[in-house]
Amino acid sequence: MGGFQTGGWGYPPLAQNSGSGIVFYVLGAASLLTASVLGAINIVGTMVYMRAKGMSLGRVPIFIWGLFAAGTILVVEAPATFTGALMDLSDMILGSHFYTGPTGHPLAYMDQFWFLFHPEVYVFILPAFAIWLEILPAAARRPLFARGWAIAGLVGVSMLGAMLGVHHYFTAVSDARMPIFMTITETVSIPTGFIYLAAIGTIWGGRLRINAAVLLVLMAMMNFLIGGLTGIFNADVPADLQLHNTYWVIAHFHYTMLGGVIFTWLAALYWWFPKVTGRKINEFWGKFHAWWFFVFFNCAFFPMFIAGLEGMNRRIAIYLPYLHGINLFISISAFLLGAGFLIPLANLFYSWRYGPKAEANPWGSNGLEWQIKSPTPYVPFPAGTEPEVVGPNDNYAAGAKEPFVWVSTPSK
Description:
Blueprint: H1 19-49, H2 62-93, H3 106-117, H4 119-140, H5 147-160, H6 178-187, H7 189-203, H8 212-235, H9 237-243, H10 247-277, H11 283-309, H12 324-340, H13 342-354, E1 385-389, E2 404-408
Antiparallel strand pairs: 1-2
Helix pairs in contact: 1-2, 2-3, 2-4, 2-5, 4-7, 4-8, 4-10, 5-7, 8-10, 8-11, 10-11, 11-12
């Protein structure tokens, strides 16, 4: 189709000069946004209206709260960006002037675009946060610390995240808008802190059993902490005017998304692998991969902070000679990081076929999914019974009662 010149943003007026490729890009974006909203309504509606017997909101598993917080972002904010995509499309093919021409307002498109697409990063990280809080209590044999504050943190990030996308273009907005969005952006660190304190409080004083999944969670916490702290400089207007569009931003983004989300995704693959397959992964190669991934991830992306401060712009093919050495080091590290993905790929495929058989609940988790056979049978619950929730599933205190009891299914 000839491609398009705007990158992943679709910004007008450049979009209107990019040929047929941008039209199909916008159609694809609108379709994905529609699917995202429908999926989010499904998740949010299921939690609100289809909870198990006895499962009050205070007993909903923390991972489901993470999905709920992510889903509400999409339900509330995706329609604005979807509408922006359609208006952009109308300017391209119908000749309207929402964003172009003498009456158009290109910044209005940026407002609509970033209204979702900064909170979109929270759609990724909120379930990851919740996975931390699902895995760590079981690994530490401790109740989830400050559960109510952890839930408030997840919901708080979701709510504040809706209001700060303008920091993506401080270089293009009026001075009056800058302090407002700077303040909101920096405020989002408060509910994020609730989540970190819940995680740290959970493992504090516990005897943490370090397997590959737990190791990856701890590494994700460290990576995201670096990403979050460096994000403060992006939120601060005077610093951002210097750091905007440099490799500092690339490093910050990847410490949150790759360092936080992808590390957690791999941890979740390892953690729930026995439930899906009935077999365990090879722990040696799981831990070897975690350290490989952690070392070369930091070797690839931490130098980008330095390169950004030294004036390395992103989205360029040629850089100044004095930046050659650090870019070479980053490139070698990135290739080794990418090669590291082959380790879990081989481990998961090999373990699926030849790994040691797993007992029904190898981690001693209180989650309902771990109270049935592994792999999950087609009919999960014993005939004539269903679970009734009598407490939160993340209370591992000594003497705590089981969070579920089995009751007879009412006859139809």
